Amino acid sequence: MDIARNPASIPGNASLADAAPEPTAPDTIRRLDYQPPAWLVPDIALEFDLGIELTKVRATLTVRQNPDAARDQTLHLCGDNLAAMDLLVDGNPAEGWSMSGSNLLLPLPGDAHEVTIETHLHPATNSQLMGLYASNGMLCTQCEAEGFRRIMFFPDRPDVLSRYTVRMKGDRGAFPILLSNGDMTASGEDEDGTHWAEWTDPWPKPSYLFALVAGDLVARRDGFTTMGGRKVDLAVWVRPGDEDRTEHAMRSLINSMKWDEEVFGREYDLDTFNIVAVSDFNMGAMENKGLNIFNTRYILADPDTATDGDFDAVEGVVGHEYFHNWSGNRVTCRDWFQLSLKEGFTVLRDQMFSADMGSEAVKRIEDVRILRAAQFPEDSGPLAHPIRPDSYQEISNFYTATVYNKGAEVIRMMRTMAGPEKFRQGSDLYFQRHDGEAATCEDFVKAMEDGAGLDLSQFRLWYEQAGTPRVNVAMTHDAGSGKVTLEVKQQVPATPGQPVKKPMPIPLKIALFDRGTGTHDGERTLQITKASETFTFGGFAQPPVLSANRGFSAPIQLETEASDADLTFLAASDDDSFARYEALQQLFTRELLGATDSGPNEPRRAAIAEAMGAVIDDTAIDDMMRGELLMLPAINFLIELAAPADPVALHEARERLKAYLGTRLRGRLTALHDRASTVAYSLDAASRGARKVKTQALILLAAADRAETARRAEAQYRAADNMTDRQGALAVMSGLDVPARGELLADFHARYADNALVIDKWFAIQASALRSDVLDAVETLAGHEDFTMKNPNRVRALYMTMAGNPFAFHDASGRGYRMIADLVLKLDPINPQTAARFVPWLGRWRKIEPVRAAMMREQLSRIAAARSLSKDVREQVTKSLD
Length: 882
Ligand code: PHE
Ligand code: ZN
Known about the structure:
Blueprint: E1 3-7, E2 29-30, E3 39-49, E4 55-65, E5 74-77, E6 84-89, E7 92-93, E8 98-100, E9 103-107, E10 112-121, E11 131-135, E12 138-142, E13 162-171, E14 177-180, E15 183-189, E16 194-205, E17 212-215, E18 218-225, E19 231-238, H1 247-264, E20 272-278, E21 285-286, E22 291-295, H2 308-323, E23 332-333, H3 339-357, H4 360-379, E24 391-392, H5 401-418, H6 420-434, E25 438-439, H7 441-452, H8 461-464, E26 470-478, E27 483-491, E28 506-513, E29 524-528, E30 532-537, E31 545-548, E32 557-560, H9 564-573, H10 577-598, H11 602-617, H12 623-629, H13 635-642, H14 647-664, H15 666-677, H16 685-704, H17 706-719, H18 723-734, H19 740-751, H20 756-767, H21 774-782, H22 792-803, H23 806-809, H24 815-827, H25 832-836, H26 839-842, H27 850-864, H28 871-881
C-alpha cells in the first residue's frame, strides 16, 4: 500500500515570531544568563559534630580558578540562613570577606587555595526539611536543589563537582548508625560515649547529591554482584520495628540493578548502596550518591498495610532513584534549567522498568492517566512552562509533572522514532560522552542524533515550547479510487510568555480497521511536521475505522470525527490495548460532557453499557486490564475538556452514569465481584487483578444500590486479609450514608493507630469522600490529635486529597477554596516548598465557570496580600493571578 505525503499550505509557519520575553521580576533567574563558575572545588572535606539541637560543621574546600571561565578573584559562596563561625584561607583568618544578602564573598589572591569554614546548624527547628533536619530523633539531609547552602557556604550549583570526604561524630546512643555517600573508610569509638565514621565518595559530585544520616536505624541487608563482578553490599535502613516491611523495597532494588544492566548497560559503581526511609520528607525520594533517602511511603510495604498500588509505587520509586545513579549522578545537570535531562529520562527509565516487571499495557494506561490528570492542566494553565524552562524564581517550583512526566514522553517519542536498538545506541553514546560531566538537554539531544541516527532539528521544539499540541485528524474516503485521506492539523496553544507557536514534529501511530473483519493491515507511524498536512492510503473498498495515537505515541490532545459507532467498534476490537481503553474513555467523555448540557444520550449510554459488559465478559484480557477499562475518566481531566467547567455538574453527570451502568450491569458486576472474591491473596498479576476489579465493581454498584453495596463492601472490609481490599471497601463505604460507615472508619483507625502511613490513608479516605459533609469532615480532621502541619505526608493526605476532590474543593460556597488558601498561609512559614504545591489548584480558575472562578481568584489575592510570603509561594501566586 502506498503512502503519499502531501504537505498542504503551512499557515502559521511564515509568521513565526520568536517567543516574547517573559516579564522580568527582580529575582528571576534566566537560562540564557548561564555563566560557568569562576572557581572549582575539586575536593571538600566535611566534619560534623552531630546533635539534634546543635550540629557543628567544619568544611575544608580546595578551590582553584576555573581555566574555562572569566577570571574573578572573588569566590562566591552561597549560604542560606548560615553564619560563618570561623573562616580561614590557607590556614589563616580570612581577610576582606563580606556578605551579599545571605551569600559570602571571599576575595582570594591566587589561583588555588584552601578555604576552611565552620557553621552551626539547628536541625530540631528546621521545619522546611531542607538542609540538615531532625525527623523522629534521627538526623538527615535534603540538598536538592539548593539545600546544601543551608549546611555550608559553598558554590551550590550543579556544575561544581567535588570529591567528598565526610567525617562525623556523635553520641553512640542517639546516633548508633552514621551514614554518608560512598563507602565507609574508617570508624572508631571515643571514650566520652561518642563514636565517629568517615565516608569517602570517589565520584566527583555536585553538592545537591551530598547526604548524611545519623540515627537509631536497623537494616535489611542483601547483596548484588554486578555484571563486572563487583560485590555490592545493599542495605535498606528503617526505624526499629519497620524492618519487616522492607522486603519489597529490597527486591525492587535488586531488580532495578539487574534491569539497568540488561536494558541500558549501566552498572553500579560503589561497594555500598544504602537506602534510608524517613517519615518527614517533602518529596518522594532522593538519589544522593550511594545513599538514597526515601519518604517512608515509598519503602515500607507489606500486604496488611500497603495496597497493590503502594507496592507498585515502591517498585517504581526505588527504581527511579537507583536509575539516577547514571541518569543524574554520573551524568548530572549543568544548571537547574536542565532538570528534565535527569528527571524526564529517569521517569522514562522507571516507566520502562515497571512495564517490564508487570504489564506493559496496563502501565502505559496508568502513565497516560497521570499525565492527563496532572500535566495537561499544568500545560494549559498559568504555570505552563517548557520541559526545559527559560526562567524561574524558585527552582523548587519546577519539580513538576511537565519536567518529569512530559519530559519522559518527549524522550519516549525519540525512542519510538529510533526503535529500541538505535535508542540504546543513542543512550550509550550519551553516557559515554558525558560521564563525569554536568550536561545539558542539548547534549542529550545531540547524542541521540549521533548515536541513534535521528535528525532532531525540529524535534528540539519539544524542549522549547510549552502547551499540549491539539491535533485534529479528519478522514475522507473515496469509494471510486478506494483511497483514504487523512487531513491532519495541529495547533499549539499560547502559553505564558509564548504567544506564538511553531508546529511540532509528532510521531502519530495509526491503524485503519476494516469494519467487517475487525482487523487492520498494519500499524503506521505518521511523522507530522507541519501545521496542516494530508496522508493518503489506497486499497480501501469501504471506509475504514481510524485508530489514532495508538500507545499514546505522542503527548497531544487528539480530536477525530469518530462516530459513537466507530468508538464502540474500537472499544471492542482494537488490538492496541491503549487504543481500546482510549475509545472507551472517549465514549465516556462525550457522554459526560454532553450530559451536563442536554442530559444523557440514551443510545450512547446503552452503547457504553454494552461495551462495558463486553469488557467484563472478555476472557482474552486479564483482570488488571479489565480493571483499567472499567474506570471512568477523572473529573479533573474532564474539567480540562469542558473548560469553563461546572465541576459539580460534571460530578453529578458522572455519578448518574455510574448509577446507570451499575444498574444495567448489576448482574455481571455482582458476578465479577463474587468471582474475584474467591481469589486468594498473593502479589501475582491474577490475584492483584482480582482485587482491582473487585473495587471497580463496588464503585459502580454503589452508585446503583447503596444499601446492598454497603453490605457487600462491609463484608469485603471485614473479610479482608490485605490493605487493597480493606482500603477499597472502606473508600466505597466512606462515600455512603450508612450506619456501618462510622464504625468501619473507627475500626480502621484503631487497627492501625501506630502506623503513620496507614493513618495517612485514614485521613485521605475521608477527604476524598463524595459526600455533602466532606468539608466539615476535613475541618474536624484538621483538629484531630493525629493531624500535624509538620509532616508533609499528613498535610497532603488531608489537604491535597481534598483539593483533588472536586466535590469538596469546588463546593459552591467557596469554602473549599478558602480552606486551601488558609492552609497555604499557615503552612508557608513552616514549610514553603510544600505550601507552594497547593497554589496551582487555585490557579486553575480559568477552567472553571465564572462564579467559582471569581472566588478562586479572590483566595489567590488574599494569599498575595499576606505580609510576608516565601519566594516559593510568592512565585506561584503571582503567576496564577496573571
Ligand atoms: N530528585 C528527586 C527525584 O526525582 C526529587 C526531589 C527533588 C527530592 C527535590 C527532593 C527534593 O528523584
Ligand atoms: Zn528523579
